[in-house]
Amino acid sequence: MTQYSAPVVTGATTPAADAPSAPVDPRRRRADLARRLRRGAWAMSLVAPAAAFYGFFVLRPLVLTLQYSFYDWNGVTQAEWVGVSNYVALVRDPQLYGSILNAFQLILFFSVVPVTLGLLAANAIRGIAATRLSVVARTVLFLPQIIPLVAAGIMWSWQLATNGLVNQFLRLIGLDGVTRAWLGDFGTALPAVGVIGAWVLLGLCMLLLLAGMTKIDTALYEAARIDGAGPVREFFSITLPSVRQEVGICITITVIAALASFDIVFTSTQGGPGNSTLVPGLQIYYLAFFQREVGMASALAVALMLLVLAVVLPLQWFARDGDK
Amino acid sequence: MVSRSGGSTRRTAAALLAGGVLVLSACSTPGAPAADEPTGGGQTFAGGEKPDCGDEPVTLKAYIETGFPLSQELFDEFTSQFPNVTFDVREDQFAVLTQNAPRVLADDPPDLMRLPQMSELASDGLLLDLDSYAEAFGWDQWPESQLEQMRVDDEGRRGNGPLYAMGLNYSTTGVFYNKELAAQIGMEEPPETLEELDAALQAAEDAGLTPMAQFNGGATGGFAFPLQALMAAYGPPADINQWIYQQPDATIDTPTNLEAAEHLQRWVEAGYFADDVNSLDYSAMMSRFIEGDSVFIFNGNWEAGTLDRDMAGNAGFFLMPPAEAGGARASMSAPLTYGISAKAANPDCAAFFFDWAATDEEARTIGVEVGGSTPMGPADGYMPPVEEGTVTAETLAAGTQVTADNGSMDFIANATGSIYAKSWTPNLQKLAAGQQDAAGMLTAVQADYENEIGG
Do A212 and A103 lie in a common domain? Predict the structure, then answer.
């Protein structure tokens, strides 16, 4: 889409400019130019308020973050220029890069699980699209999306507690041996946080994929059935390739959610036990507001942003290639 | 021509605006120049007569911690005694206070503010130096241990130097126990030595009870309470204070502290703590203790009032027993610190409020009954009558004993701004899960400590 952006603002390729270059009266050319500039200025004045807000609230903080990352600053007194030493500390301190490794583990739960289950759920719901059950299923699966993440984190921390719903259920079916404080155990805390994320993101993926599936021409399925394809073959040969773009979007959104996670971890474990669920978002918060190392926090924020871009841009490429 | 130049001017202006935002924001060094304004860290009161709130209407701007009724009760009583003074109160959770402290003190200066760890706030020139008030009101005549923790020298070390904060009362920590469960395991009297405490814990374990459901989850490792109690049972509390105050060459990794940490590790290995301590937060610990699911908890006298209400007659309190019989008792005992912003509008009135809270009989009564803690002030200050047999009576008596034994310590969690959340807590959680041993924990915390105060 962006390749064909219309030349509205700049007015650089109006028909007049494209016209065969016959000798043109300079006065007329000047009038043309003035007209174009007038039109450009008019458009510019329409864009300006939004651009100013964008500049002030999006671009300015970005630039400031980049600037702070080269300083040693406690947020109040005069900052001291320290060059790239914050970035050097980033690769040397196991606690700092450990948080990034934790975030990558979360991708499994935040992305792979919801996208896989979302595909299956959407496919099943598509099969029963005409019935009332599909409305119920859609609503139930989407419900977690409208709950604030903080509320989801608190609710799940109760359910995963020693006497919470999860352990009560396990005891009910005789699995007393595996019950534990899921969020307080070094081995299970990170997966437990991941489960909360998967629960939240499943609904979003399901809805996006379902929307993609409704666009598929039903004639394709009829043709496949005439050729003798079963439901599995239909899914892999028609449904999955058709929603490739939606899958790409789902993966992009959920990978960003995993790498930049904060709310769920903050409300359920606060990074504990023993830093086993520490993620970069939380680490940035601790650095900036508890350790008052605004420079270090900014460096980690910049690194996190680059990391997200490095992971997400290839994904975008991959999804776009499928269109061609 | 006119329109052309007008158009290009506007366009240039827009481009300049967009670029200018970026350039301007990136030019200057962040942060205000270090306090060279006359108000920063300075004093407005020149000494002489005792300052007060005058007769004109005064509104004191207060920024306090939510969830603790003591401040509000004191404010109300103060207004009823001095009707020209009203309070404009803003409340936040302690974690929010901690985050906002530097910015609020600098940009929206309160007259009274509940302070988190204060050494950086003082050395950054954000807090008012209270020494001249201390002299005028005679605070310097009070037991020095009450004020020591609120003194910060020009290197940002606590323990010495000008007074930068004042307490509304001071706390005492120790062990609460459930009297019914204690009788069940044959503990008739509070233990006199560490050995007797070990025996009681073992008896509780043998009886199938949970000896201690001590909170240790999230970012607040509550094992710091028993750890520091054990440190003071094995070694002198003064050494621990040296470390907390960031005195030169202080280390937490000492032989007696190692003994203490190993003792804690033995408690973990013996199963004296609940299985899920690493997921227990403070409020979960309190509800389990009140429900009778824990024989002992390490905590402080700020809960005395609550326990007298919710566990009437069934809660007891003792100070951590010493390793040797008859040894001195020590306790984490910290003032409930409030400060005055260096830029406050009414510092005299705020200082007068501090003095009033420590000396007025009504205020001291509120301090004991609502705050559950010992009021600040002279050693022979007025004490309201407390009902015999209540846990409040026991904690107040304990506070007196700590003063007599000169055993008050600040909390090891207060050594630096983030030592609790980022060092003690993860290491104590690892210790609780058997992933870290005592020696490794002390080494790790000392390394974080040096890293933070050095950097």
Answer: yes
Q: What is the pLDDT of residues B70-123, one digit of tens each?
A: 899 999 999 999 999 999 999 988 878 888 888 899 889 999 999 887 888 898
Q: Tell me which residue range forms the domain holding A33.
A: 6-68
Tokens of A128: 């029963």
pLDDT higher than threshold 90 for residue A49: yes
Neighbours of B453 (CB within 10 A): 16
Residue span(s) of chain B under CATH 3.40.190.10 come to 58-170+335-384, 173-332+394-454
CB B121 within 8 A of CB B103: no
Neighbours of B320 (CB within 10 A): 25
| CB B345 within 8 Å of CB B58 | no
For this complex, say whether ipTM is above 0.85. no
Cα-based angle B220, B224, B229 (whole degrees, multiple of 5): 150
Q: Which of B8, B23, B98, B278 best probes binding to A when mutated, by most A CB atoms within 10 angstroms?
A: B278
User: Taking the model in full, what pTM does it have?
Assistant: 0.81
Domain co-membership, A132 together with A239: yes
Q: Please list every residue in chain A whose beta carbon sits closer than 8 Å to the beta carbon of residue B31.
A: 73-79
For residue B314, give the nearest of B370, B389, B210 by alpha carbon: B389
Q: Which CATH superfamily is domain B58-170+335-384 in?
A: Periplasmic binding protein-like II (3.40.190.10)
How many folded domains does chain A comprise?
2
B346: its two tokens = 């009414």
Architecture of domain B173-332+394-454: 3-Layer(aba) Sandwich (3.40)
User: Which one, of B449, B403, B409, lies nearest residue B236 by Cα?
Assistant: B409
Rg of chain B in Å (alpha carbons): 25
Summarize pLDDT for B184-214 with one digit per residue, the tens.
Answer: 999 989 999 999 999 999 999 999 999 999 9
- Residues 135..164 of A with a Cβ closer than 8 Å to B: which? 161-162
* Cβ-Cβ contacts under 8 Å for B262 (sequence gap 6 or more): B438, B439
Question: Domain check: are A61 and A133 in the same one?
Answer: no
Q: Is residue A84 part of a domain?
A: no
| Binary contact (B98, A289; C-beta < 8 A) | yes
* Tokens of residue B161, six digits: 């130097």
Same domain flag for A17 and A132: no
Q: Examine the domain organization and report whether A104 and A190 are in the same domain.
A: yes
Task: Assess A49–B contact: CB distance below 8 Å, yes or no.
Answer: no
SS3 B213: coil
Q: The domain that contains A174 carries what CATH number?
A: 1.10.3720.10
Rounded to the nearest 10 degrees, the angle between the axes of helix A189-214 and helix A113-127 is 40
CA distance B392 to chain A (A): 32
